[in-house]
Amino acid sequence: MATAAPAAPPALGFARPTFAKLSPHPYLLTNLTPQSPSDTPCRTNGRAPHEARPMHIHTSSLSHAHGSALVRTGDTTVVCGVRAEVLPVSSIPQFRPRTHLSAHNASETEGRGELKDYDLLVPNIELATGCAPQFLPGVPPTTLAQTVSTRIYSLLHSCRVVDPADLRIWCDPSPSGAAAGERDEKMDTDDNEDQREQEGEEENQPQLMAYWVLYIDLLFVSFDGNPFDAAWAAVLAALRDTKLPQARWDPDREMAICSSRAKTTPLRVSGLPVACTAAVFLKKEHAETATSTTGENNRHWILLDPDRLEESLCGETVTMAVDCSGEGGEVRIKSIEKLGGTVVGRELMRGLAGVAEKRWREVRDALGVNV
Amino acid sequence: MADRRRINGPVGTTVAPIFEDDVAQESKEAPKSTRSRAPNAIRKMYLKTGVTPSASGSAYLEIETSAKGPVSGLKLTCTVHGPRSLPKSTPFSPHMILSAHVKYAPFATQQRRGYIRDQTERDLGTQLETALRGAIIADRWPKSGVDIIISIIEGDQDRATSKSQGDETWDMMNALSGCVTVASAALADAGIDCVDTVAAGVAALVQDGSADSSPTIVVDPIPSEHEKVLGACCIAYLPTRDEITNLWFKGNLPASEMDLYNQLVDRGIEASRSANQVLVECLGETIGGAASGQVS
């Protein structure tokens, strides 16, 4: 920290936080510009530009959720709780019935459609917890909260983290179950014609009767920049921690019954995509491009895992989700999101992939996973 | 009309899982866990300030779970923002305007909660505000406002009993007492002047045996540990001033027995004194930590 002290404060007599508040851009710029060539550039928070905050993950601390995680990176703390609820197929509009066989032979794309069509994953972010002065409750979700929720939602679906097979609840094909189903069918005079036909055709086959819906709720306890990385890590850790009760469909009561609280099956989570966000800080404030109008080069810094101050000063951010858990530890880029600015080109993006791989290893260690 | 600013999930209604062993338990009246603490002992609590560095003040409170069963403890975070100037449209106020906001996390209780505040949360917010207003020296900040926001990460609620007994009020009382204590710590962390540290405690009149056994008074009750809770009161109390800032009484007691009421209030004060010890200790640690940090 001492090496990064800005030149101005001693004369002015301002404390560092005051200086940061008064003129944030020059403050960060002075910090990043080394005083002598031997010095390495250092950010206001004492980190090197490509240094991310260490991540701490704690799971299974909530008793009412089926899976939970607390993730802390620096001063950003987020709690995630996954809660499973039963959605009977009768209450899904435009439900396409499927048999046990077809479900097993289904291609991957079809299964993914199931997750998305019936909306079985429901991630939501709550920022209005007073986690930072700008997020106070009593107002509708801010743009940031909506954006992060949607980004988590789309990454969940595009990475195929959850296998829809784990979320299906079947009707027991045992003789007693079938007989009960038949009896119901005779008494039933409703207009459930498709359903009845289906039941008649596949009397002895298991019927798909309900789905688990995973409500993934995220609550920010403390906010200090980079909400997406922390939230995504929390979602992933909570999903890995999720244990679903063993459920079967009871045709008599027409609802899903779970046998016991003690008997649970862990939810399978495929892959380990890790999000890595970096922001681009430009030397010239309010400049939009790498080269200014006068032709001189506008210097830039890539700041990994930006905090709140840095986020407010950077117009361009890149988020890359990578997964190295495949065979051979190869880096697979799952998603790239780039907002604003024109600095990051092909070369920088390639460099960022390397940085993201390093971050992946850190997060993997924090999760305690051996891949 | 669904809220389009959130991800709402499937159109059809989903139901929480129903367990076979719960149904069995209800019918055969499984043996309940019993209270292992002394009648005048509160549960262990953990209080820490400064969990949200960007807020003016913040605190985290955790009350341990009871030893047996799938009973959750209480986990609360509180942030205090301000004092800060009120928006121009607000009429002049000679003192500080408090606004307390209590929200359960969706995963905090047995039933999944929505993101919109419901009636119980509003009620908790109002009571919390009353409890704190008595402790703050509000005249020192005219024309300014303070926001106190509490997120209940885990509600103090038994999975099985609240449904079977049907009275969530007792859980709410425990939650309120936690809210008052944690908010008091956060206010102190924010450096807002108070006449005293306010802490809250709960006392309850419970019946452990059959219907004709004599009821006893316990502090910090867990509804699942008792056969029946007849009445309870939650008291926010300033120990050095010997003042009660908020009193919430609920139950079905005969009006003739004034003694019973007095005893309940006395025990409630006792409980809040115990909570206050924890609070003072925690604040002492905060100050001690800051002081030693400056020296080194």
TrEMBL record, chain A:
Its subcellular locations are: Cytoplasm; Nucleus, Nucleolus
Keyword rRNA processing assigned: yes
State any GO CC term. nuclear exosome (RNase complex)
Pfam families associated with the record: RNase_PH
The record's region (Disordered) falls at 173-203
Question: A single Gene Ontology molecular function, please?
Answer: mRNA 3'-UTR AU-rich region binding
Entry keywords, A to Z: Cytoplasm, Exosome, Nucleus, Ribonucleoprotein, Ribosomal protein, RNA-binding, rRNA processing
Q: Does the keyword Cytoplasm apply?
A: yes
Domain of life of the source: Eukaryota
| UniProt record similarity statement | Belongs to the RNase PH family.
Protein's name according to its UniProt entry: Ribosomal RNA-processing protein 43
Organism annotation: Bombardia bombarda
Automatic annotation (TrEMBL), chain B:
Listed under GO biological process in this entry are: nuclear mRNA surveillance; poly(A)-dependent snoRNA 3'-end processing; rRNA catabolic process; rRNA processing; U4 snRNA 3'-end processing
Which InterPro entries does the annotation name? ExoRNase_PH_dom1 (IPR001247), ExoRNase_PH_dom2_sf (IPR036345), PNPase/RNase_PH_dom_sf (IPR027408), Ribosomal_Su5_D2-typ_SF (IPR020568), RNase_PH (IPR050080)
- Give TM segment ranges: none
Q: Which Pfam families match?
A: RNase_PH
Q: Which GO terms describe its molecular function?
A: RNA binding
Domain Exoribonuclease phosphorolytic spans what residues? Answer: 42-192
Q: Where in the cell is it found?
A: Cytoplasm; Nucleus
The reply to whether Cytoplasm figures as a keyword in the UniProt entry is yes
Record bears the keyword Oxidoreductase:
no
Q: Which UniProt keywords apply?
A: Cytoplasm, Exosome, Nucleus, RNA-binding, rRNA processing
GO CC term, one of those recorded = nucleolus
Recorded hits in PANTHER family, A to Z, give:
EXOSOME COMPLEX COMPONENT (PTHR11953), EXOSOME COMPLEX COMPONENT MTR3 (PTHR11953:SF2)
Name the protein family: Belongs to the RNase PH family.
For this entry, the protein name equals 3' exoribonuclease family, domain 1-domain-containing protein
Taxonomy of origin reads: Eukaryota, Fungi, Dikarya, Ascomycota, Pezizomycotina
